[in-house]
Design goal:
CATH topology of the largest domain: Nucleotidyltransferase, domain 5
CATH class of the largest domain: Alpha Beta
CATH architecture of the largest domain: 2-Layer Sandwich
Bound molecules: 5'-O-[(R)-(carboxyoxy)(hydroxy)phosphoryl]adenosine, zinc ion
Distance between the termini: 25 Å
Strand order of the largest sheet: 3-2-1-4-5
CATH superfamily of the largest domain: ATPase, nucleotide binding domain
Helix content: 40-55%
Shape: globular
Strand content: 15-25%
Largest sheet: 5 strands, mixed
Number of helices: 11
Length: about 325
């Protein structure tokens, strides 16, 4: 089955074609440079850029895959969560394509898409597994018992998402946008034990996260020590986030009796997080699956791959498919 996927939920415009074996093409156009001067994504500007770029990106994805448009079996598109105007561009394009090609439409939850980034390289992976999803808007522990398209949320952030904390602290440190990669780069030359930032809610039985106190702790430190070494602050902050994410994931795996762990979402690109989670999983003989860095970021291949499994299960959408900005599991 060949699935064409479309992703426009935030600031990446992407179209991909995948089948059961893997990726045939995956074209991603980032708007980072466009939003950089504003220090964050401007929703209206994002939507306009998607609208302008989507036709060329679609054309390139089809060319790269070396297939005929008639070979496409399903059109999959992110319908939430995300920015409403941005989502609507992708959804309208997908509906038009589905009508023109006379091929079924599948609406995909962006969060499920992130989990499916793993399947692009491990198509044989089947539940049960636990996924730590860490992105700009979400920090969730997802339990997949049997059906890989359905998850139970067993833990989530009660305030900021992990990626949001990276972005906000990067702003406090004057490191610019996007914050995650900037913090990681700056932290490389810093001492992660120079400052001890709080690790919130590390009590047994609690699988929720809280990062707003950590962000405030960085703010207070910078107020009392305006000349604090930026690299040490970045490294100490990153270590605190990683400690909490890894501790909670290991605790959840133990509580739920899971042997397989997935790390997905934009923050999964963080090398300290990848390294520490791998260490802790190996100590406990847990099987860890993490997508390659480029597939941790928003892309349409993961959406298409999730769409493929949804289509296999007959979970199609009709032309009433709409953008759902706060879609959850
Ligand atoms: O999944 P994603 O591309 O978009 C959303 O669905 O939100 O995630 C973007 C988030 C941003 O907050 C960004 O700062 C963070 O992922 N991020 C990172 C790294 N690369 C991206 N955070 C920490 N370390 C990184 N290397
Ligand atoms: Zn995302």
């Amino acid at each position: 089955m060949k699935v064409l996927g479309i992703e426009t939920s935030c600031d990446e415009t992407s179209v991909a074609i995948v089948d059961e074996e893997g990726i045939l093409s995956n074209v991603v156009s980032s708007q980072v440079k466009v939003h950089e001067p504003f220090g964050g994504v401007v929703p209206e500007v994002a939507a306009r850029h998607h609208l302008r770029n989507l036709p060329q990106i679609f054309q390139k994805a089809v060319e790269d895959a070396g297939i005929d448009l008639r070979d496409i079996d399903v059109v999959a598109v992110t319908h939430g969560p995300g920015l409403i105007g941005a989502l609507m561009v992708g959804i309208s394009f997908a509906k038009g394509l589905s009508l023109a090609l006379k091929k079924p439409l599948v609406g995909v939850n962006h969060l499920l898409g992130h989990v499916y980034a793993v399947k692009l390289n491990f198509p044989q992976l089947e539940p049960p597994y636990l996924a730590l999803l860490v992105s700009g808007g979400h920090t969730e522990l997802l339990l997949f018992k049997e059906d890989p398209t359905r998850a139970e949320v067993v833990g989530r952030t009660v305030d900021d998402a992990a990626g949001e904390a990276f972005d906000k602290v990067a702003r406090l440190l004057g490191l610019g946008y996007p914050g995650g990669p900037a913090i990681e780069r700056t932290a490389r030359s810093g001492d992660p034990h120079r400052y001890h930032f709080p690790r919130a809610m590390l009590e047994r039985g609690n699988l929720n996260f809280s990062f707003s106190g950590l962000k405030t702790a960085v703010l207070y430190l910078l107020r009392s020590e305006p000349d604090a070494n930026r690299s040490d602050v970045a490294a100490s902050f990153q270590e605190a986030v990683v400690d909490v994410l890894v501790w909670k994931t290991m605790h959840a795996a133990e509580l739920m009796g899971m042997k397989k762990v997935l790390l997905v979402g934009g923050v999964a690109a963080n090398s300290r997080l990848r390294e520490k989670l791998a260490e802790e999983c190996s100590k406990r003989n847990l099987e860890l699956h993490v997508p390659p860095v480029e597939l941790c970021m928003d892309n349409a291949a993961m959406i298409a791959r999730a769409g493929l499994d949804l289509a296999r299960r007959g979970k199609f959408s009709d032309l009433s498919l709409n953008a759902v900005p706060y879609l959850s599991f």
